[in-house]
Structure formats: structure tokens, C-alpha cells
# Entry
Amino acid sequence: MRILVTGGAGFIGSHIVDELVKLNHQVSIVDNLSTGSEENLNKNARFYKCDITNKETLRLVFELEKPEIVIHHAAQIDVQTSLKKAAFDAKVNIRGTINVLECCKEVKTRKIIYPSSAAVYGDPKYLPVDEEHPINPISFYGISKHTPEHYIKVYSELYGIKYTIFRYSNVYGERQGAKGEGGVVSIFIDKFLAKEVPSIFGDGEQTRDFIYVKDVAKANLLALDKGDNEILNISTNTQVSVNKLFEIMREIFVVKIVPVYKEVRDGDIEHSYLDNTRAKEIINLKNEYELQEGLEETVKYYMNLNSVADEVAVAKNI
Ligand SMILES: NC(=O)c1ccc[n+]([C@@H]2O[C@H](COP(=O)([O-])OP(=O)(O)OC[C@H]3O[C@@H](n4cnc5c(N)ncnc54)[C@H](O)[C@@H]3O)[C@@H](O)[C@H]2O)c1
# Structure
């Protein structure tokens, strides 16, 4: 199939591209490399350096590629940036998605897969949070991830574009930057590798639902031919405190560092874990990686990167 992945140079998008290429799909990537990187680009996918807020360039790419399916992962992903730059956040996440939808309409794309977020639910009224839970974002990022859900549904009703809307919990894994929703894992790893003391905002008893990126990539593959016109939580259905996460990582690194506790930040949700029953039923979602296993894989990756960087530094006599 011809599949276009926006944000395919980023953390989650690049894992999806890798899986699609393995399955011999014809894959193209649209990314402006703002948080993504060229190193993440799969050599067997065509890459267009293009900003989704630039409708004219985006249209040219769509006309060339004529994607049958669009997996739209390009976004402004940082809650704190959304609080400081609400208009920019909306421009990328809302207007950018409208541009993508317009292009889908023009080239008759069959289906769009869109990653929304646990952030749309805000502070949970009950746990685990299912898809019927009230929508009540407490950050501009939560609003800008939710608003496109409405656009997608109306584009679908008016122009017949099918969709699967995913609401991811906190995704972690290889290639993650420090700013996204599962970013705490990559922050801890950076600190452990640098032998520095990590900070925890609040008392560390806040909980999250950490899902490994390879399981998320698989969910996207499943949605290529399942889950039409559905909204599905993609998660592990498991609550893990930030303190517990810290403890597991300390064991993996075999170190005795103690974290520094800092004040809670605006826009941070206290407890969150998502009910994934519907995704299991409808697209046959599988959580193949336990937290410990996914963390070990992730740490291995960052350790390798670090030792390569050390070798380069030694070679260059830095
Ligand atoms: N990481 C998580 O835990 C999580 C949770 C819920 C939802 N999501 C969603 O998943 C998607 C991917 O997130 P990620 O964590 O991989 O982040 P990421 O920053 O690694 O990926 C986003 C990609 O989009 C690109 N991009 C940003 N603005 C762009 C623009 N204007 N035009 C073109 N490309 C642009 C970036 O360069 C980057 O490659 C996002 O839509 C995010 O909202 C992520």
C-alpha cells in the first residue's frame, strides 16, 4: 500500500515507518525535522522535508505520493510549550491537521490514523479511563490534540475518509526526546548515563501508564485494515508511579542515586491510566512488552549510543 507518515522522522513515527517498510509497503515521510532527526529516517522510505502548516508544499507531496493511508504523527508535542505558546501549538496541531485532511480529501486518501492523547481526558474522574470518559483537557496541548478528532470525524462524514483515532497513554522507548508525554523515561536515562541526579516533579506518587513504542507501532499496523471509524485507547491498562519507574531504572543501571523532588508543574495530571479493552477487542491490540523488558531495551539503545559517542570523542581526541 502507499502510506504517508507525517512525523516519520520523530520518535513514534519512525518506529511505525520501520515496521511498514519491513512489510514492503511503499512509504513516504513528511517531517519538518523540528524535533525529529535525519538519523531516524528509514532509507527505504521517501522523505519530504515539509511543514504541515504549509498547505501548498504539503499538497505537492500528496499529489506526488497519492497515499491510500495517512498516519498523521507530526505535532507540537510539549505540554509546557503549549502553555507558553498556545497559538503556535494550535497552528501546528489543529491547522496542520486540517491541512493534512484537506490533502487527504483532494487525493482521495482512503483512511487516516491519528494519535490523540490521554491528555484530552484531563484529571480523571474515575480509573481506568475508558473512551467514554468526559473530555476535559487541562493544557492547551490537550485541547489541540482533541480538536482534530472533531475535524477528522466531520471530514469522514462529509467526504468518506475512514479513520482510526488512537488515544495513547505515555509512550516510551528508543529515539524518544525528553519533551513528549513519556519523556520522563528518556530524561531519567540521560541523567543516569551522565551520572547526574534526576528531578521528580511532585512527590513521585503520581501515576502513569507507560507503553513501549514497539507495541504502539504494532497498533498502527493493526489499524491499516481494522478499527475503522473508532476511537481507541492505546495503553497497558496498568498504573505505575514515577517513584516505581525510578526504582526499576535504578535496578537496571545498578546505581544508588536518590532523586530530587521539585514542585508540581502546571498542566501535569496526577493519576492516569487508560482502559484498553476496546482496542483489544476491535484491533486485537497486544502488549508484547512488559515495562521491565521495554525499559531494558531502551536503556540498551541509549547505552550503545553513548558508547559510540565516547568512541567518536576518543577518535577525535576530544
Ligand atoms: N510520546 C507520547 O507519549 C505520546 C502520547 C500521546 C500522543 N502522542 C502523539 O504522537 C505523535 C508523535 O509524538 P512523538 O512522541 O513521536 O514526538 P516527536 O516530537 O518525536 O514526533 C513529532 C514529529 O513531528 C515533526 N513535526 C513537528 N511539527 C511539524 C510540522 N509543523 N510539520 C512537519 N513535521 C512536524 C517533528 O519533527 C517530529 O519528527 C504526536 O502527534 C503526539 O501528539 C505521543
User: Anything to note?
Assistant: The first strand starts at residue 2 and ends at 6.
